[in-house]
Known about the structure:
Blueprint: E1 6-11, E2 15-20, E3 41-42, E4 46-50, E5 54-63, E6 70-80, H1 87-115
Antiparallel strand pairs: 1-2, 3-5, 4-5, 5-6
Amino acid sequence: xxxxxxxxxxxxxxxxxxxxxxxxxxxxxxxxxxxxxxxxxxxxxxxxxxxxxxxxxxxxxxxxxxxxxxxxxxxxxxxxxxxxxxxxxxxxxxxxxxxxxxxxxxxxxxxxxxxxxxxx
Length: 120
């Protein structure tokens, strides 16, 4: 487990705000954020592209000052445009979905550990 660390984030509505920064957070942008409720922590982004029209993104996030604070959670985006696949393409896509399901399960376990107060 790593020691406690803090970060100072510039906000337009409250000025500089210093807050605890979790070990999984990848850092904060230098630009000020609009409002304190927009301050958030983000982890490493997992991105998968397939077939030019399918994308899956997942990352750990937390919004400690949100209008409804969000504890560490997993933000997932699935973006698809229509794709037409032949049998080998469909089989390859199914394989990628299986692999990504396994990754999401790993992230779910990590999230459970983090929410229980661990640092993984």
